[in-house]
């Protein structure tokens, strides 16, 4: 088993037949199961066949086999499992049904329905999907006091899934006594890997500071709070059971000449507001609903590597009227440097304006109240802050109980495990009263508004994760007094970054607006997490990808540099280089926001880094950077070949941009980026006067390009193979990486034209270039980044009409979906509502693709190949910075 594991990890070419041989001759059921699990890494189809055969045996490993098949979720299992629905053995029959139900098979559901009323009715009720709620609910409630504690928990979990709170206290008991944190819950999204906490949080409607991996003191305190509220409030406490009505409204973007607006079906849509030290994620209605990983705990206020608050809210209290909590905004306006929430009720017009200091972990929220009536109004305004000081995803840092205190008009909170982590908040005046309960703090302020009078209150939330609470208190008043000045500075800086520098216009107003939105996205994704990192870097996506991500950064360097964010491009590369220096040049895939390496680089990542460094140099002519990074790039490529090319054929093996288990070990994108890296190294060496090294890399690039066009092209299909099996045979699974040979310029001309033509016909739906070609792609949500990539590829091979079509599809992201002005990860549905490579590659598509600018800053030269597609009558770029020079370019019919 140990030898098989090592060979599997190493990508041994004959691993599949070896594992099948061992499974055939192995007498021990557990060993056979482990071999089958190894097999899933290399050939999912064969693994499914083996696991179904093992299930047929009906041995004691059957429950683990069922779990494994459910985790694989392969449709290939359906025809193999269906015959087992008639097996005379109940365990085999129901085990097959359990897997099939997770795959959506209706025949399995019928088998389970037939068990209701019989000896196996409870097991069947636990397996049947939610649509049979009315049939299975009475059965579950009948067994809620089952003598077996594990079965009681399963019943309670199923009841919770069905939206019934009958087992709520059973869930809390299990959550409190469970010693395995992974059984309590995960650090993923809600129900990504369902644990006890997932069911509880789904009922409550929010994580409420619960962390399955937190200290016992923290977990016990949260569960104690839940018990107390459940006892006092009953079903009202379980907000997850109360279906909220959509709140219609309108969102707008207003910045310079960028004017966007959209009628919203529901204002419970996320927004993002950022500085380089802190950001805020909330909803446009004024609330802070859960989102993302950490069981939904990635919304709120973050000053990485910690979160400091789940959120805050304002409540207007006026005698004779019901309390008015400002979470019913119907008009939200994003101005990139700030955002506004507009409220109106009972003759009061209220604007909440939020903004984040650019270089301080400080969020300001100004409340402007206008009395529109002819009489004086006496009000109390309550500010409620929900504290949650916790470490970022996968940081490995301890999460302990938060301690809240009130002094001199301010609330301070510290994490009891490390008093360096804290948050301080309050207003520009002392409150009349305060109240602390658990992790919530209320501050109440009296207000008198004369007829048609106005009042403004400024609140500040200040985070600190290095020097502790006294340091935060020490600068609180200074920052608060400068609130308006800080906002003015932020607005001026954003005007310079977004509206200044490189400028673009064209006869298509949507693409022009999208260009400036892309620049705004780069400004909002700029982060400075020193001292945890050696330099600032660009976040990859919100809310999920605030980590330093290798491939995302590398893809984004040309667009970010050309788009006026050269300093952030360089410092992001320096962050990656810092980790590569420590690991023989191996560029990381993912580094957590406290600097902890959590993902070693995939096969293509180090070659991508080399290409990105060269692209940065082409735009800037930064010789000092090139001299520093060239030795690292050389070392990195040799390391990549040593680690990832085990069979010595010149192609890298292992996971790449597509991490699918059923692909061959050698991936098309890795091969293309390796060839591109050799080309980049040749040019780097030439730029540094190392002609011998340049000639060597040029020969390697030329030979690899020749072989790649021969080995990976399938003439019969008129398409590239997206992976090669261990024996060199091609696999065509239809992934988006078939466009990479054209994106990198590696493809021979005729092959490129044929591939682009077929991609446009079979991979592009109404939203863009889909991840995987299928028979029906109409319901797929393509990555915006993929639209950009295909545009770049098309322009590179002289197809401006396809290139323009893809740019226009990419431009829909900031103009139509989610948070206006933000480039989503995918459209029309997306996990991240602002994504780095979506916006940066859009800029690259316009500047290097449409305008055809190929910079050679160090040589004081530029090559131009502008292309005007049929749908465009003119375009112009101004103030394009190429090293020491500035370029203006216009193109018209």
Helix proportion of residues, in percent? 40-55%
What characteristic shape results from the CA principal axes? globular
- Sequence stretches where pLDDT stays below 50 over 5 or more residues: none
CATH topology of the largest domain: Glycosyltransferase
CATH architecture of the largest domain: Alpha/alpha barrel
Average pLDDT: 96
Distance between the termini: 68 Å
Q: How many DSSP-defined strands?
A: 35
The structural class is alpha+beta
Number of helices: 30
CATH class of the largest domain: Mainly Alpha
Oligomer: single chain
Kindly estimate the percentage of residues that lie in beta strands according to DSSP.
15-25%
Largest sheet: 10 strands, mixed
Query: What integer value in Å does the Rg equal?
Result: 29 Å
How many domains, in number, for the residues?
A: 4
Strand order of the largest sheet: 2-1-8-9-10-11-18-15-14-13
